[in-house]
Amino acid sequence: MGARKHNTAEAMKEARKNEYFAKLNNVPTSPRKMRLVADMIRGLEVNRALGALHFSTKEASRALEKVLKSAISNWEVKTGKKADSETLYVSKVMVDGGMALKRLQTAPQGRGYRIRKRSNHITIFVDTKTNKAE
């Protein structure tokens, strides 16, 4: 690795030490469906977001709830505080497209239709209200 690339990588690692996030890769749901649920919790306080995800009827909310709990746990470990005592909120939610499984479905007259079974990657960042003000 070159010196410039190494220095950039080290700077990125240092910046990530002050961010609290969790990531889940290859969730077998289309990114479009996942973004609908992610938009519900973006910017909400953590306990309200957990409640919204828990009582949502969409299948995508189960995976988002799992990642949000992991992000909260990561915040607690890094700061040494309990999440109940602070005003934690969901600062960023990113849903990126993952790999797509390509399949064939039989069609009339000897043809085959292509089916793409999509997946996505979820990243959730949490932060405190006081941290953002600084």
Give a quick precis of the structure.
This protein is α+β, with helices and mostly antiparallel strands and 134 residues long.
Please identify the structural class as seen in this structure. Answer: alpha+beta
CATH superfamily: Ribosomal protein L22/L17
The count of domains is 1
The H-and-E topology, N to C, reads as: HEHHHEEEEH
Number of strands: 5
Total count of helical runs of at least 4 residues: 5
Strand content: 25-35%
- Uncertain stretches of 5 or more adjacent residues: none
> The biggest beta sheet, please?
3 strands, antiparallel
Mean pLDDT rating? 92
> Can you identify the CATH class?
Alpha Beta
CATH topology: Ribosomal Protein L22, Chain A
CATH architecture label name? Alpha-Beta Complex
Shape: flat
Estimated radius of gyration: 19 Å
**What is the share of helical residues?**
40-55%
Keywords:
single chain, 134 residues, alpha+beta, Ribosomal Protein L22, Chain A, three-stranded antiparallel beta sheet, 5 strands, 44% helix, 29% strand
Describe this structure in words.
This protein is α+β, with helices and mostly antiparallel strands. It has a single domain (about 20-134), classed as Ribosomal Protein L22, Chain A, CATH 3.90.470.10. The chain is about 45% helix and about 30% strand. It contains five helices and five strands, in the order αβαααββββα. The chain has helices spanning about 5-15, 30-40, 45-55, 60-80, 130-134, and strands spanning about 20-25, 90-95, 100-105, 110-115, 120-130. Strands 1-5-2 form a three-stranded antiparallel sheet. Helix 3 (about 45-55) runs antiparallel to helix 4. It is flat, with a radius of gyration of 19 Å. The mean pLDDT is about 90.
